[in-house]
Specification:
The chain has about 375 residues and is of the alpha+beta class. It has helices spanning about 25-30, 155-170, 170-175, 195-205, 210, 215-220, 310, 320-345, 365-370, and strands at about 10-15, 40-45, 50-60, 60-65, 75, 90-95, 100, 105-110, 115, 135-140, 145-150, 185-190, 235-240, 265-275, 275-280, 285-295, 300-305, 355. It is built from 9 helices and 18 strands. The strands form 5 sheets. Strands 12-17-16-15-14-13 form a 6-stranded antiparallel β-sheet, with helices on both faces. Helix 4 (about 195-205) crosses helix 8.
Length: about 375
């Protein structure tokens, strides 16, 4: 079976350089991409206890993501409905039983209801039901929290199902990895001096793998030719014949993830869930990159290494052997992304560059950006 994407020309134009540094374009992306698409903001197990919360900057809004008394995870705009003061200022914390505004002590339950209004408790003229925290749409997929500021957007499945079907033909393959049941064995955060789209572009192709990632192509020889699965539905990339595990040495004996079979033992799968999640499936662990734009020329990535709960619970558990290889790959990638960012201001890139044969599939991401910005009719706007 071959991918259903239409055939593209051998050389596709990239976005012009200004798309990677212009503040006005960045602001429109925040509104029309990150403000209207489902965006992954982290793992639900980052707030495991009742009353625990994390703050998320999304599409120009500050959003509280909190776990309620009933165990459910909910999201609200981080704004008191009385006079507009910000409720929470810490990136992560414990609210207790309510969120209380520092200004006039209005209080909101973990479900967003207005529950406390000092000196107005007996004033029936205040419609408390109308002045709860404004909710933000939230769905959890495989343990990942996704938010959408657009109240009219389609469900999350409408956004995630197409790329999963394009990659695998259906949900069965990725379901076998049981990502939502895995636990974080190691997490590393990176700040990158590059526009977020350059980071996405880089992950989507392997044309750079030979010159940039010698350690990676040692493990996955097909990447040496700049190829990965080449659009073939369901096809993974095989380990080298003398490689037993995805580690710097190529050796290891970590147990296979529950749900996988012998046919999965020596395969790597990588794909992108737009706009901001990179998924790496391996026989004994899963690696997730969650990307967050920080500005026109700065990005933040959280890389989580996920393992079977029983494996991670062993006293001798140590993920360093496999963390080291992808941490190295990440740092190599960020270096070339930053080098590319330096060229985006040059007059030499005013009209952009080219995606060559092994990169043309990235044009689908370019088209997504242009469509969301209302410029779908031109790749040379």
């Amino acid at each position: 079976m071959v991918a259903v994407e239409p055939e593209r020309a051998a050389f596709e134009p990239t976005l012009p350089g200004r798309y990677f540094h212009d503040p006005d374009i960045y602001a429109r992306e925040q509104e029309r991409i990150f403000g209207r698409m489902w965006v992954c903001v982290g793992r639900a197990d980052a707030i495991p206890t009742e009353g625990e919360f994390m703050l998320i900057d999304l599409g120009g809004e500050s959003v509280i993501v909190a776990r309620g008394h009933d165990g459910a995870v909910r999201a609200f705009l981080n704004v008191c409905r009385h006079r507009g003061a910000r409720l929470c200022t810490d990136a992560h914390g414990q609210a207790g039983r309510v969120f209380q505004c520092r200004y006039h002590a209005w209080s909101y339950g973990l479900d967003g209801r207005l529950v406390g209004t000092p000196n107005l408790a007996r004033d029936d003229r205040l419609d408390r039901d109308a002045y709860g925290l404004l909710p933000v749409r939230l769905e959890v997929w495989e343990g990942l929290v996704w938010l959408n500021l657009d109240p009219d957007a389609a469900p999350l499945s409408a956004q995630l199902d197409p790329p999963i079907r394009t990659r695998f033909g259906g949900p069965e393959t990725i379901a076998r990895y049981r990502i939502g049941d895995l636990v974080v064995g190691r997490s590393i955060q990176y700040e990158i001096a590059a526009n977020w789209k350059l980071v996405v572009d880089n992950f989507m192709e392997c044309y750079h793998c030979g010159p940039v990632h010698p350690e990676l192509v040692r493990l996955l020889p097909a990447f040496r030719q700049g190829t990965s699965y080449q659009g073939i539905v369901g096809e993974g990339t095989s380990f080298a014949s003398d490689v037993d595990a995805f580690t710097l040495s190529g050796q290891g004996s970590r147990p296979r993830l529950p749900g996988l079979g012998p046919d999965d033992d020596r395969l790597y799968y990588g794909f992108v869930l737009w706009p901001n999640v990179f998924v790496n499936l391996l026989p004994d662990h899963v690696i997730l990159h969650t990307l967050r734009p920080l500005g026109p020329e700065r990005s933040h990535v959280v890389c989580d290494w996920l393992f079977d709960r029983a494996d991670a619970g062993r006293a001798e558990f140590d993920p360093t052997d496999t963390v080291d290889i992808f941490d190295l790959v990440n740092r190599q990638d960020w270096e070339v992304c930053e080098l590319t960012q330096l060229g985006m201001h040059s007059r030499a890139y005013d009209r952009g560059g080219l995606y060559v044969t092994n990169e043309t599939h990235i044009a689908a991401f370019r088209d997504l950006v242009l469509s969301r910005l209302g410029e779908a009719d031109s790749t040379r706007p």
